[in-house]
Amino acid sequence: MHGAMIYAPGDVRFESLDDPKILQPTDAIIRTAVTCVCGSDLWPYRGAEPVGAPHPMGHEYVGFVEEVGSAVTSVTPGQFVVGSFATSDNTCVNCQNGFQSGCLHREFMSTCQADYVRIPNAQGTLVATDEVPGEELWPGLLAVSDVMGTGWWAADAAEVKPGSTAVVVGDGAVGLCGVIAAREMGAERIIAMTRHESRQKLAREFGATDIVTERGDEGVERIKEMTGGIGADSVMECVGTSEAMRQALQSARPGGDVGFVGVPHEVAVDGEELFFSPVGLRGGPAPVRRYLPDLIDRVLSRRIDPGKVFDLTLPLEQVAEGYKAMDERRAVKTLLTP
Ligand SMILES: [Zn+2]
């Protein structure tokens, strides 16, 4: 089979790789239907994270079950399945508490930009659809495996409620999916912070009621002006930088909530600033598995279409161009078809 390997910052190659094999009785092998490049894949691509030895890439997937280990009974070969970037047994105490991203047997996916993928903890991780969905729904279901699940977590962690005001910091795929989540959860006002015209348009399509183009202190000022000087009920931080985190903390009203889901890179929060930001804080890797059945339903019933975050589709063999386009911000998110 073939798949993506990263060798160094800016150097992603499409190569012939060994076919994945069942290593544990709890594994499954899937044939990739569609996969994609994540905003977080850009951290090593841009040299913001060390690459180390050459390794495969990708953690988002939907596909067809090829083979299952002897302990896997929940899915069978031929079924179309959706999973999460963090695998989970779905039975341990953390899973039962709804935090499958903290599963005691968690393994992060990292080989998904390939024709075939080994899924550890397949029994707890994979959710099969009743029938094979139409191809037009695959991008939306793929989004559910990471960015839509993470956007949902951002809104959930920020306690978005019917009638509330929600702010989204970050206009990447997760931030845009955060807008969808806030609308689905009934927020009355959804303020998307973005300077890019195409992303503003998509944010509005997804349910944003207001756009703020300012950033940093000026962005916070605008949010305060728009909320009677008080701040927003819920703020979703979907970037992972110190600037975005400060903006989020300062944009929430006293007693409001911040959900932070951007993978942090050298984020530093000043203790005093934190002390004087009387907000609820919750974040981390999204417990996507908890949301999968519900989000799959919303996509299949065409209530939401998070697949619209993919604005570039390339054959898997052009994966290198997929990274480049996102790095240069020519694309929000690249869909890859084997
Ligand atoms: Zn678990």
TrEMBL record:
Q: Which domain of life is it from?
A: Bacteria
Tagged with keyword Transmembrane helix: no
Kindly give the InterPro entries that the UniProt entry links to this protein. Answer: ADH-like_C (IPR013149), ADH-like_N (IPR013154), ADH_Zn_CS (IPR002328), ER (IPR020843), GroES-like_sf (IPR011032), NAD(P)-bd_dom_sf (IPR036291)
Q: Which cofactor does it need?
A: Zn(2+)
Which keywords has UniProt assigned to this entry?
Metal-binding, Oxidoreductase, Zinc
Concerning Gene3D superfamilies, the annotation shows: Medium-chain alcohol dehydrogenases, catalytic domain, NAD(P)-binding Rossmann-like Domain
Q: Where is the Enoyl reductase (ER) domain?
A: 10-336
Question: What Gene Ontology molecular-function terms does this entry list?
Answer: oxidoreductase activity; zinc ion binding
Q: Which family does it belong to?
A: Belongs to the zinc-containing alcohol dehydrogenase family.
Q: What's the protein here called?
A: IMP dehydrogenase
Give the originating organism: Streptomyces dangxiongensis
